[in-house]
Hints:
By secondary structure, the chain is an alpha/beta fold. Among the domains are: 239 residues, no CATH class; 91 residues, no CATH class. It is built from 22 helices and seven strands.
Amino acid sequence: xxxxxxxxxxxxxxxxxxxxxxxxxxxxxxxxxxxxxxxxxxxxxxxxxxxxxxxxxxxxxxxxxxxxxxxxxxxxxxxxxxxxxxxxxxxxxxxxxxxxxxxxxxxxxxxxxxxxxxxxxxxxxxxxxxxxxxxxxxxxxxxxxxxxxxxxxxxxxxxxxxxxxxxxxxxxxxxxxxxxxxxxxxxxxxxxxxxxxxxxxxxxxxxxxxxxxxxxxxxxxxxxxxxxxxxxxxxxxxxxxxxxxxxxxxxxxxxxxxxxxxxxxxxxxxxxxxxxxxxxxxxxxxxxxxxxxxxxxxxxxxxxxxxxxxxxxxxxxxxxxxxxxxxxxxxxxxxxxxxxxxxxxxxxxxxxxxxxxxxxxxxxxxxxxxxxxxxxxxxxxxxxxxxxxxxxxxxxxxxxxxxxxxxxxxxxxxxxxxxxxxxxxxxxxxxxxxxxxxxxxxxxxxxxxxxxxxxxxxxxxxxxxxxxxxxxxxxxxxxxxxxxxxxxxxxxxxxxxxxxxxxxxxxxxxxxxxxxxxxxxxxxxxxxxxxxxxxxxxxx
Length: 540
């Protein structure tokens, strides 16, 4: 290899390693800053129940005699409420708790946050590879990855959202293997694609769309004579075999009756309704069972940095124009083939939610997995503009400055709003956030609220009530054991010393607050209140 190429390759590797190394260092320094989200205890319980089942199934003494698992003896996997949800992340994570001897709840959830973030880093690398492969440039790959990191809500949730962000990471990895396998079917690629698909499906069954996309893409390429039909069918069958084998292997609930239980999980997924959630949407209370068609597009538009939204529209427009020009040919090369795949991966689930009237809530978190595909499309939009200005140096420079300015503004907002990046809205929302949309629906700011109360009240026992629909009791898990003992979470506002209000589904009367309490402090983000702490006026 010529010396110049060797030096370029070395520089490339150093910069890529430095990029991801810095991300890991940043995450390592801040992962303890985030509170305990609403779903975390429930997610952990799923892992505990499944691990207990594995211990009993294989007669593993260390698991069967674990004191940490003994307190969950009443839970049986076959009758457990969430048995139809995969545990490919939750069960190994609970096992790691035992390996690293995490016992106190605070340490356990901090540990979970760190591992959650590391899995997200794997997902960011997968996004890098998706973009690098499509645009044949590692520099452009890093641009797309930076778009992902500088998406405030997803960055915050990468620490505590073991459902949607872990699924995003696993889905991004499986998207990579989809492209590799479809472009070059082989025994090795069939195995790795089957493995990646299975892990994604065992995190969330939504990944079942990957086998569907794989079949469609293989058929399209066969019809176009881009690959041998017999080979495509043979390797496709191997892929399904490996996928099925790994799905069963990583999902303990399937072991006793793979076909019957998987069908139950599939039916549960297609008909899934956990509850009829009431949500604040554009200033109006709506139900999750009767969402307006624009709910999902609106949430994506107002919680994504505006630069990416604009670039995404340019990128989608460019792909649609190419498709129209190609007519029945659809694509002329592997680059355009990948563009169509990313477009389908982004728009397909959105259209399915709209036309099937699917139940989603808490913004668009259930569809975070489509975001990597969107960012690759947005990157294509960026390159379309760049190429449009290729013969005009000063316009290219202005475009670079606009890009850096927008990304820098987002990064600054994330820094000044830390650790509440989860309530990010762009300029489209305007002011008065709490009157238009649910803000901290995860309950992340509750931990900080309790810490503020501790700093201002020296009493050995403090009675606190949630004044809105938020899991205040989960926030206690984020405190050290001594501070935890000083709180009693109650439901009777007449006995409460403090009321913590984050505005989601308000459960306390305004007149009661005005007559008996005073506003002691607020947690603010971008001059918008996301939580209030009300203290009783006089001692009882």
